[in-house]
Fold this protein.
Amino acid sequence: MKSYRKELWFDIKQRRELINITPEVQKCLQESGIVEGLVLCNAMHISASVFINDDESGLYHDFEVWLEKLAPEKPYSQYQHNGYEDNADAHLKRTIMGREVVVAITDGRLDFGPWEQIFYGEFDGKRRKRVLVKIIGD
């Protein structure tokens, strides 16, 4: 069994950002030479998420509205965590959206259902962030 590891780095310009990372993960799969196995992608920050969904601009908006209803950024004073930092909402959003995804690799390709894409969701950005890609298989 082979193993491959790579960190994908992103310069996040806004507090919240969604990035389709599928092309970068596909490139990692090609670099790995693995044709049957599994790929794990996980956020390396406690205020970020990796998830699978459709790459549709309306969904980007819907995620933003939905997450703000569940864990609004402001007022900062509503959260006990907020003292030194103001990112309690980002931690909650990450919990809702999840930490990682695992995708099967079949015949050297990501074995997706229709419309599935891998996204990095950042909820406390404005700095450099990363995703771990770990691929195992033959």
Observations:
- Residues 57-70 form the longest helix (14 residues).
- The radius of gyration is 16 Å.
